[in-house]
Specification:
This protein has about 240 residues and is of the alpha/beta class. It has one domain: Alpha/Beta hydrolase fold, catalytic domain (Rossmann fold), CATH 3.40.50. It is about 35% helix and about 20% strand. Strands 1-2-4-3-5-6-7-8 form an 8-stranded mixed β-sheet, sandwiched between helices. A hairpin with a 2-residue loop joins strand 1 and strand 2. The protein is globular and about 50 Å long.
Length: about 240
């Protein structure tokens, strides 16, 4: 039977939903300002709705290393800092947030620590990147995208919930490595935090690199809709079928 445990893996605290006979590892990274266990309920929902996956899929939810002072009271964490004042003004004024030229200083370090988590779990579980799906929400999806672009051995799939095009100059140089990668990408048409149009820029980059992108457009804001959950489960099942 699956169980939930919290432990330190490498340099990060992680929440792990275990499996008795693991055949697939799913690593999901939370968004900016969310607590480290923010996406655990999604993993639990996946398994409750798909009981035949219970003993076959391990879910890992690493906690971001930073604890911004303004969010410490409720356990909010971050993969890299954001200017909250600037973000609030952009949301209030409806200004378009174009992050294509943003290259966060701590992005490589964040990528490295999550790679460390994946490497250790692979060793423990006897799995490989070909049996691994990586993804996340918002800032966590940007990190998962960056990790996938830089990985020498690609994961079986990438999940991008409400992400955006970031670090374009570097990502453009890495996109050709994505040929054949299965991607589930979802974005709300009225997202006030990360504009819908920018998600299409990311979709274009991924497709130009040869990725097979299932883009899910939905009429809502910065969230994860049911149809994106369904598509993500299908991606996990596809990974299991390839084993």
């Amino acid at each position: 039977m699956a169980s939930l445990e919290k432990r330190t893996i490498g340099d990060l605290n992680c929440h792990i939903i275990t499996a008795e006979k693991p055949e697939c590892l799913v690593v999901l990274c939370h968004g900016f300002g969310a607590p480290g266990d923010d996406l655990v309920q999604i993993g639990a929902h996946f398994l409750e709705s798909q009981p035949d996956l219970m003993d076959r899929v391990v879910f890992a939810f690493p906690e971001a290393p930073l604890s911004p002072e303004e969010m410490a009271m409720y356990g909010g964490r971050a993969w890299w800092p954001l200017d909250m004042t600037q973000l609030s003004r952009a949301i209030e004024s409806g200004d378009f947030r174009d992050l294509r030229k943003d290259s966060p200083q701590l992005l490589p370090a964040a990528r490295e620590v999550v790679e460390g988590v994946i490497t250790q779990l692979h060793a423990e579980l006897g799995l490989s990147m070909a049996q691994t799906v990586v993804g996340g929400f918002s800032q966590g999806s940007m990190l998962a995208t960056d990790l996938t672009l830089h990985a020498q051995e690609k994961p079986a799939g990438l999940i991008i919930w409400s992400g955006t095009l970031l670090n374009e100059e570097v990502w453009q140089t890495q996109k050709e490595t994505l040929k054949g990668l299965s991607v589930v990408q979802s974005h709300g048409t009225v997202d006030q935090i990360l504009p819908f149009e920018a998600s299409r820029w990311l979709e274009t980059l991924l497709k130009e690199g040869g990725a097979n992108v299932q883009f899910i457009e939905f009429d809502d804001g910065h969230t994860i809709p049911p149809e994106a959950m369904t598509a993500s489960i299908a991606l996990i099942r596809q990974t299991l079928e390839r084993v």
